[in-house]
From TrEMBL:
Keyword terms: Hydrolase
InterPro entries: C-N_Hydrolase, C-N_Hydrolase_sf, Nit1/2_C-N_Hydrolase, UPF0012_CS
TM stretches of this protein: none
PROSITE patterns, per database record: CN_HYDROLASE, UPF0012
Keyword Lipid metabolism (UniProt): no
PANTHER family: DEAMINATED GLUTATHIONE AMIDASE, NITRILASE-RELATED
Species, as recorded: Haloprofundus marisrubri
GO molecular function: hydrolase activity, acting on carbon-nitrogen (but not peptide) bonds, in linear amides
This protein's name: Hydrolase
Record keyword Hydrolase present: yes
Annotated CN hydrolase domain residues: 4-250
Length: 275
């Protein structure tokens, strides 16, 4: 398949899990109606609210959220990227922040747990500590599909180019970045970082975001984007809950990689990062 249609859903999720999930499932139907082959969702698609409730909200990978998305994928004959939801960790007060990719037959192809957690300390005071309630994943994940190789990431991962380079060198050519970027950082960094990851890795970037004021949390930026391998923004959401689409052209991607061969010139023996 040299071209396919991707949909990215910008959502205003709150703290009522059932309402959020039902809205997401309705977007799958909408994506099918416009002929999308893949529909994607933002970070924390089913719940944004009091962090003390994360263990209560969390569920296993084969729980109702994934099962309902799988049923919709099968009904509508399209691929679904669930965005992220909270996954239970047995015998732990923490949860994983997890994404799942489901094929058009309703089969789970793979899952990814957010690797980089947003902890910030200023002047000796903890300002925000995601790691207090969320445990990090420990591996990069790519997913082979009939139309592309997907690279999976979540929100704060976007600031760590090494993750995307790892996925690109494993063959990823479409990177998914579900997010709940804050208004404060999003207005200055969101688009710049997404375009940089697209250019560096000569990959399409599909970045569905949360928008709006949130219970027990800060306002989110939105501006869901789809970016092409040259770094051009080819679809962008307005400041509201909505679905955007774009045609992903793999022949164009292959031409970009053929004509500017930077992926071939990586020199991992030169690069060094401290543990």
């Amino acid at each position: 398949m040299s071209q396919f249609v991707a949909a990215a859903c910008q959502m205003d999720s709150k703290d009522t899990k059932e309402d959020n999930l039902n809205r997401a499932l309705s977007f799958v139907d909408e994506a099918s109606e416009i002929g999308a082959d893949l529909v994607t969702f933002p970070e924390m698609v089913t719940y944004i609210g009091d962090k003390d409730r994360y263990p209560e909200i969390a569920e296993p990978l084969d729980g109702p959220t994934v099962n309902k998305f799988a049923e919709k994928a099968r009904e509508n004959d399209l691929y679904v990227h669930t965005g992220s939801f909270f996954e239970q960790i047995p015998d732990s007060d923490r949860v994983y922040n997890t994404s799942v990719v489901i094929d058009s037959d309703g089969n789970v192809l793979n899952s990814y747990r957010k690797s980089h957690l947003f902890d910030i300390e200023l002047d000796g005071n903890v300002e925000y500590q995601e790691s207090a309630c969320v445990a990090p994943g420990d591996k990069a994940v790519t997913v082979e599909t009939e139309f592309a190789t997907l690279g999976l990431s979540i929100c704060y991962d976007l600031r760590f180019p090494q993750l995307y380079q790892t996925m690109a060198h494993r063959g990823a050519n479409v990177m998914l970045v579900p997010a709940a970027f804050t208004m404060f950082t999003g207005k200055d960094h969101w688009e710049s970082l997404l375009r940089a990851r697209a250019i560096e890795n000569q990959a399409y970037i599909i970045a569905p975001g949360q928008i709006g004021d949130k219970p027990s949390s800060v306002p989110t930026y939105g501006r869901t984007l789809i970016v092409d391998p040259w770094g051009n923004v080819i679809s962008k959401a307005k400041d509201r809950e909505e679905m955007i689409t774009a045609t992903i052209d793999m022949d164009y991607l292959n031409a970009v990689r053929r004509d500017l061969q930077s992926l071939r010139h990586a020199r991992p023996n030169v690069y060094e990062l401290p543990e």
